[in-house]
Amino acid sequence: MAIFDEESKRLSIKLVYYGPAQSGKTTNLMRLHDILRPDLKGDIMLMETANDRTLFFDLLPLGFKAPSGLLIKFKLYTVPGQVVHDSTRKAVLSRADGVVFVADSQRGQSTNNGESFANLEDNAARVGIDFDRLPLVVQFNKRDLSGILSEEEVLRRWQAAPWPVLFSSALVGDGVVETFNALLKQVYDSLDREFEFQARHDLSRAAFIAQASGQIDRSPP
Prior knowledge:
Helices cover 35% and strands 25% of the residues. By secondary structure, the chain is of the alpha/beta class. InterPro entries: Gliding_Motility_GTPase, P-loop_NTPase, Small_GTPase_ARF/SAR. This is GTPase domain-containing protein.
């Protein structure tokens, strides 16, 4: 549910990292923030209330302009994974334009992954998001640990799902950028139906992704 300000010709896009506790949502966001060029990001902000926390930062604080003059800005969020913080998760999810679901690859976390994904679907309905149309990417994180599901097992379990499934070790940055770009691709396709990026603004999907990721610097911070 991107927010369009017609007077300023500004489009604000909200992306959310969702998943069970300790799956690596915060690590994803912090690692992405680390490897973005300094001019592409605002400071990481932390909201803490009653033992929960939500991280967010502005991507491209000044935005980027399509050839038509449309200004596009992004804000990235994580949600707290603990079950008791469901109200915060709903609030953060509200008006999201795209979601990365960060799952934990460890074998013992399959139940938590499933429950958290069901919670995402339930909360999307509660805040008025059509889950079937929501741009969504599933990331199986913590591939650097032992005792994890193999990629073949994961893909077999998710083979009927319509969403891209990616693998990562966010702690060292592996798969973080790839996941983000996969989400940007879906967000572009979704918002293009409403805002006609290509037809009205001469903004291709490739240009949208390149501008939003800013030719991310992959060197260590």
